[in-house]
Sequence to fold (235 residues):
Amino acid sequence: MERSEYIKTLDSYEYLADYYDELLQDEDSLCLWLDKIKVHKVNSILELASGSGAMASLLKKEGYTIKASDISPAMQKVAKKRFEGEYLLLNMIDFDLPEQFDMIICFCDSINYLNGYREMEQMFKTVHDHLNDGGVFLFDMHHYHRLKEFKEEYIEEGFVKDVPYQWTILADETAEELSEHFVFYDKTGMIEENHNQKVFDLPKTVELLQKCGFKVTFDKDFIPDEKVLIEGVKI
Fold:
C-alpha cells in the first residue's frame, strides 16, 4: 500500500470503532459466550468493555436486564446504532456505580488491555463490590500460546468499507505483550492506531481472583490455543 505524506496517530478505537465489526467481530464467539451465560440463573448483567454493543444487544434480545459500558466514546457512538439500552462510559478498573448485579462480563480479550497485575487486582476488587452475593464474574483472556503464534509478525491487508487497511500483530515474549497496529488510508491520508495487550499468566490470574473473594473455575481450552474462559463466583 502506498504511504501517504499525511500521517495521523489516534488513540485506541478512535478511528477503528467504525470498522470494528467488519474486522474483529466474531459471531461464533458471541454464541459461545451466550451459552456460558445461560448456564447461570441470572437476570441483571453489567458488561464491561462492550465495544460495538453486539453482545449487549444479543443479551437484551434474550431477555436479560443488561447495562453496557466502555471507556471509548467512539465505541459508545457506534454501539448506539444497534443497542437500544443504557451504555455507560466508564473505566473497567475502578468504576463506581450505585447498584449491584447478578453477573458482570468482560469478553473479547478486553481484560488484556490492563497494564499489569496491579490494575487487574484493582479491577477484580471493583467487580466484586458490584456483584450481588453469589454473583458471577465471567471473562476471557488471551491464551499463552498467542505469544508463540505471533512470534513472527502477522500481516493482513485489504479493504473495509472501501477503505484500504493494514493490520499487523507481533508478540514480545519477553514483555509478554501483543502489539496490534492498524493503518487506514482514507482521503485525508494515513490514519494509525496502536493497541498493546498484556498476556497474563493463568495461575497468577486465578490467585488474584481468589485473593479478591472469588471461587474460581476456568476452561483453558475455551477456544484452543486462543482464549481462556474464567469464572469467578463471589463468596
